[in-house]
Amino acid sequence: MPHKHSVWDGVVIAVLAVAACIMLLPYAWMVLSSLKSNMEIVSGSGGLFPSQPSLEGYQTVFRDAPFVTWLFNSLVTSVIITAITLFTSSLAGYIFAKYQFKGKRLLFVLILATMMIPFQVIMIPTYLITAELGLVNSLMAIILPNLVSSYGVFLAKQFIEEIPQDLLEAARMDGAGEFRLMIRIISPLIMPMLSALGIFTFMNSWNNYLWPLIVLNDESKMTVPLALVYFNGTHQINYNVVMSAAVLITIPVIIVFLIFQKQFIKGLTMTGMK
Distance between CA atoms of 247 and 29, rounded to whole angstroms? Predict the structure, then answer.
């Protein structure tokens, strides 16, 4: 029997539409501002839409800075961090979910406790360790502190706990080792979780600003979030250039989300929590 739409359905749809417009307004303003001249943005005379659309801001981004190099640096660091984080999270989650060993509960609680500690608290010790290893001003300084995610371990454990133990025992009886078990059995079953965690990890790495600002000072090693500071003048901000750089920075994240959209939504709905 077809569902009859009530007045409340229309109200809910209208409220969601208004909320969506409010959420998308800053992004629309960013894209439209990137097509304006700096004078038009500063004066505010043109309203939301540019009076004479121009690609001057985008041309300046690629002409006055090694923006392609920064994109490459961000891509390399984000992909490596995401790939290793997925591996370490799924492996640790598997151990905590399916193995019994002394101190397991305490160790897991300690891992969860690190989720409550703001990065600013451990920022100085992390920098001192990075400097001691001679990694300051290198891409490894961005990669190494972000290879393990306590949230990822927690999420993987919750998902893997839902996998029937009988399935794993049957695979072992067929001669599957632990590594093959992880690759052939567990990984496909937790793929929605891996997709959701991968997108979150990639986004956080791609948008990371504070840590690269601290450990990088060589222009050739910079990542794209630092470009927003690079294009700020000493006495005047080139708003159209900054907005153009912001649009270019956002595009890769949107592409990644669109590619893994279905798995991402499925991973959010399948929490695996008891």
Answer: 11
